[in-house]
Amino acid sequence: MTKDWGAVHDEIRALSFVQKKPLEEIRELMERKYKFRASTRAYRMKLKEWGLQRHKPRRSLTQRPVAKDIDNSSDDQDSSETVEPALRRAFHQPANWDGITVPDTVDESRLLSPHFSNVLNQESPLEVPEFMLNMLSAVLENDAQKLETMIIDNVGHINDAVGLPFGHAGRFFDYPLIETMKILQHPGQRLLDIACGMPCGPVVWVLLSYGATGSENPPGTDLALYNAIKNNRPYTIQALLTPGRSKVNGLPGATWKPLMQAVLQNVPEATSEYWAAQLDKDELECLRLFIAKGADLLIAYHGFPCETTTSKTFQHQAVWHSTPKLAELIIDSIPPESGEGCSRILHELLGSCPHVRDHPADTLRNVKEILHKGIDTKLFDMNGITPLERCMERSPDTHLVTLLRLLMEHGADPEDRDGNGTACYIRVARVFKESNLADEVMQAMIPYFHPTCEQVFASIRPDTDILLCIQNNIPHDVRSVFQRAYLAVLSTRFLDNITRTPRLRALDNEEKNEIIRILSIRKEANIATYTFSQELVINILAGQNSLTFTHTYPLPIQSK
């Protein structure tokens, strides 16, 4: 797919601005789903161009009294995300502040604290010496020995500012480590500020041992301590709270308090494990009406706590952590015209929850109900996965085959390829490589036909078309698994056809010989035992003494 940003604008906007997904995850999803290839930097620049930066707009100084503008700034709320480039430029370009109006009778110099004055009076971005950026590189690489050497070579500079090195024009723009932590930034930040947001390591101790201190951002926050608390670094926090390093009660005159930040950041989740049992008749009726009108089931809802990715959505809670009657009410109430809503609930039903042991009958009943609403069984979910893939990867073994058959009866095509271009039968071989379930799954996926005895034998001969086809189209790591499963399907269908169909005559010697030869091949390939009826066993044994059998075909199959 060419880079037609307009074609994917709406989906990128929903993933980034509404669902708050990281840019790296969005990039991988769009590449897998649409073959849309672009760098993370290109995504960030496009979001900026579309006006979708993830930060709150700067509030005008005229919206609140002047005294409160400095003393009551709630930096611990506005800084929960990494500072975006648009916000960084506000510190560098005083020309962008023309929109701020101030009464003529007020002395403008009194509006700003010394911190803001220093930042706004900069005519150009802070120029950081190369050796400071090299020291920052050692910090980010967690190379304590290299850092200590550079500190000794540049005595007296350990507390110099490093500017904004993670901006678009910065040396460390798009640095992978920054994507894994949240740090508050300003042009005067120091090495210790950034190190305290990283996982606790030797660089923090090296910096502290040589007298490194954190900076104070303009609203009055101890940046090193703030970043350590924000990223849950308990050992770093303990080191910073050593007397003389950080002020445990915050800086004088500032509203930010370390204890307040730690408490608000670690509030336990409010959950209700028995929420479904507490609904009365009127509430159930209201819920049914809302769903019938197309209510979004992916809204956030904290019910039963579990580790699944969708655990904090009402959809997951309703399917897996409610009563069977409530789950049926919700699924029955979804309108057929809600294609996307039906698709999402189908993907949820085809998955599983490690905290729930559902009865197969409940799942099968609910899946049938959704499929009867006319849903397209080829629709991808938000991660580019089809219902067939979801079923193979996450459905319990107890009703996996039945669910696969249901999906294919309603239009799912096992020959379709996933977002990565992998054929469904190859995924089967990989997912069930270590179990005998691959035989049953392949049995469900291959259209039914009546193979002859010669076709069964052809599946193990090294010079036949089917073996050449397997070698040319199946990856080497799953080739033996696929060949074994294919042999299991063909031999089972041949035995079904010859033994379970009504017969007007007894089996002749040739047919008995074929049965015995195929049973021998299945045993060598470690395929599950085939069950015969009692009458047929007697029929075979009656003439067994007259049979002669010599195995003539090699078996290039790795037994389990």
Please name the defining characteristics of this protein.
single chain, 560 residues, two-stranded antiparallel ribbon, 28 helices, elongated, ANK repeat, Clr5_dom, Clr5 domain-containing protein, Ankyrin_rpt, Ankyrin_rpt-contain_sf
Verbal overview:
With 560 residues, this protein is mainly alpha-helical. Among the domains are: 54 residues; 200 residues, Ankyrin repeat-containing domain (Serine Threonine Protein Phosphatase 5, Tetratricopeptide repeat, Alpha Horseshoe), CATH 1.25.40; 113 residues, no CATH class. Strands 1-2 form a two-stranded antiparallel ribbon.
Summed up, what is this model?
It comes from Plenodomus tracheiphilus IPT5. By secondary structure, this protein is mainly α. It has 28 helices and two strands.
How do the helices and strands line up, and which of them pair or pack?
Blueprint: H1 5-18, H2 23-34, H3 40-49, H4 66-71, H5 75-78, H6 85-92, H7 114-120, H8 130-140, H9 144-153, H10 191-195, H11 202-209, E1 216-217, E2 221-222, H12 223-230, H13 234-240, H14 258-265, H15 281-292, H16 314-320, H17 324-333, H18 339-350, H19 360-371, H20 387-394, H21 400-409, H22 424-431, H23 437-445, H24 453-458, H25 465-473, H26 479-500, H27 509-524, H28 534-542
Domain Clr5: 1-53
Biased composition (Acidic residues): 72-81
Keywords: ANK repeat
